[in-house]
């Protein structure tokens, strides 16, 4: 059996990375000076001069890979995060090389002739090759783990919802290479099993199991009512030297990703992580909203002008329909849309959502709703700061009051600015669709916000967010 020796694997990984760096660098030199694919250029500096730089580049890049967690176990690092770390490590490496050349030029004028363009080719090539190599390593590990090799053997301490959820995820992802040997619990009879994983004894059996040294990890999955046993179990596990982790059974209290902070040595668990509560993140997003809304207003002004003319020409009433919605921190604001319905009384407006073939919607209004052109005036809401380009869609006050009682965690969506488009909308949850599913997607967005995710949602909106089969 192949043992899971992370230290040995890391050494091998470092050697592979060093080889990849060298190959990428030599290929970049060939591409610049010999290939003829690009503008052919005779190098002022010799091949040997360029190659001597590798004596510094290779160790610096390996250190950067360590700094950006590229030697973290593949079991716990996702592919997208790994690729992001590869890009960041190489970007820092490129900046360091430019800085070094700038400094060295003042001591040796020869470095002025060192091709910066070649270094950029190396930057791109190395990112691509590192990603390919890591994908191949992942495929190899997945293959041998499916055949029963390179496994981590785990014992669960405590039968709870957390234990069941942990078993579920391990069995759904055999490529992780985890094998659950069994569960110890004081309240469940020996022999009872969950999806093939049996209760093999009481928690007291740890004293006999741990000295056998046949386990890679202990996962403590106690139920909430048994947390008083935690300190003793942790002390017993750590005495044996077996790696121990804690999977808390508070899924019904904290159903999503919490985060911790250090309060002068006191760990504090925050129930929900909201990246946009960070001042810098909020500032960056607001800058994007202001610039983006101004650009869109200018870019789509002909479309908005034509829509305005059609609305005024085909029905009586105001051009813009302003409706109260609930926004950031539960504060109401007036959201703008092109009017798509015949003028109604306030009571008629409160009747409910628009249905298919709703007689209240004008002919032009049906087209504007179907193509989402009626939403364009909300660019001015974004400019004012009531809304964002991307975020959970805002709802009317009466529905907020209704859903806050019916749907758990509904009100969390108001911790960020509402958006013109959102993660729920680009995944098909618009109009007359599941509110619960919509909230699940909104919460995912709130807790996983990045500038890149905003760009992705805007990109998807262009291709599949405008035309909406559920818009009536």
TrEMBL record:
The entry's keywords: Membrane, Transferase, Transmembrane, Transmembrane helix
Transmembrane segments: 12-30, 50-71, 83-107, 119-137, 290-311
GO MF entry, a single one: phosphotransferase activity, for other substituted phosphate groups
InterPro entries xrefs: Bact_transf, EPS_sugar_tfrase, Undecaprenyl-P_gluc_Ptfrase
NCBIfam families recorded: EPS_sugtrans, WcaJ_sugtrans
Main location: membrane
Cellular compartments per GO CC: membrane
Name of this protein: Undecaprenyl-phosphate glucose phosphotransferase
Location of the protein in the cell: Membrane
Stretches assigned to the Bacterial sugar transferase domain: 285-464
Domain of life: Bacteria
Matching PANTHER family: COLANIC BIOSYNTHESIS UDP-GLUCOSE LIPID CARRIER TRANSFERASE (PTHR30576), UNDECAPRENYL-PHOSPHATE N-ACETYLGALACTOSAMINYL 1-PHOSPHATE TRANSFERASE-RELATED (PTHR30576:SF0)
Membrane-related topology note: Multi-pass membrane protein
Family to which this protein belongs: Belongs to the bacterial sugar transferase family.
The keyword Transmembrane is annotated on this UniProt entry: yes
Species whose genome carries this gene: Roseburia hominis (strain DSM 16839 / JCM 17582 / NCIMB 14029 / A2-183)
């Amino acid at each position: 059996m192949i043992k899971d020796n992370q230290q040995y694997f890391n050494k091998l990984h470092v050697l592979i990375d060093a080889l990849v760096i060298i190959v990428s660098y030599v290929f970049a030199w060939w591409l610049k000076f010999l290939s003829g694919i690009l503008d052919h250029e005779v190098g002022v500096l010799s091949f040997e001069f360029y190659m001597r730089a590798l004596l510094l580049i290779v160790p610096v890049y390996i250190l950067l890979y360590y700094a950006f967690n590229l030697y973290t176990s593949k079991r716990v690092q996702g592919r997208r995060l790994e690729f992001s770390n590869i890009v960041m490590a190489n970007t820092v490496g490129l900046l360091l090389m430019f800085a070094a050349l700038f400094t060295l030029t003042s001591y040796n004028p020869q470095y002025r002739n060192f091709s910066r363009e070649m270094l950029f080719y190396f930057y791109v090539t190395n990112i691509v090759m590192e990603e390919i190599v890591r994908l191949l390593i992942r495929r190899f590990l997945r293959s041998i783990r499916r055949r029963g090799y390179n496994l981590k053997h785990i014992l669960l301490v405590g039968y709870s919802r957390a234990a069941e959820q942990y078993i579920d995820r391990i069995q759904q992802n055999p490529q992780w290479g985890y094998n659950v040997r069994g569960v110890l619990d004081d309240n469940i009879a020996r022999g009872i099993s969950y999806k093939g994983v049996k209760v093999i004894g009481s928690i007291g059996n740890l004293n006999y199991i741990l000295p056998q040294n046949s386990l890679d990890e202990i996962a403590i999955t106690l139920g909430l009512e048994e947390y008083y046993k935690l300190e003793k179990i942790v002390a017993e596990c750590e005495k044996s030297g077996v790696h121990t982790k804690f999977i808390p059974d508070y899924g019904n209290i904290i159903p999503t990703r919490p985060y911790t902070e250090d309060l002068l040595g006191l760990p504090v668990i925050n129930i929900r992580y909201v990246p946009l509560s960070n001042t810098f993140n909020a500032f960056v997003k607001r800058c994007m909203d202001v610039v983006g809304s101004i650009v869109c207003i200018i870019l789509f002004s002909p479309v908005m002008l034509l829509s305005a003319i059609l609305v005024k020409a085909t029905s009586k009433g105001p051009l813009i329909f302003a409706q109260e919605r609930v926004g950031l921190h539960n504060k109401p604001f007036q959201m703008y849309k092109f009017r798509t319905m015949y003028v109604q009384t306030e009571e008629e407006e409160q009747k409910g959502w628009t249905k298919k073939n709703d007689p209240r919607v004008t002919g032009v209004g049906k087209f504007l709703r179907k193509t989402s052109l009626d939403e364009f005036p909300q660019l001015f809401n974004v400019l004012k700061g009531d809304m964002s380009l991307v975020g959970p869609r805002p709802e009317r006050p009466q529905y907020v009051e209704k859903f806050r009682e019916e749907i758990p965690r509904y009100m969390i969506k108001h911790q960020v600015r509402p958006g013109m488009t959102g993660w729920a909308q680009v995944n098909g949850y618009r109009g007359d669709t599941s509110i619960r599913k919509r909230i699940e997607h909104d919460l995912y967005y709130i807790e996983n916000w990045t500038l890149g995710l905003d760009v992705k949602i805007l990109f998807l909106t262009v291709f599949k967010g405008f035309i909406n089969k559920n818009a009536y």
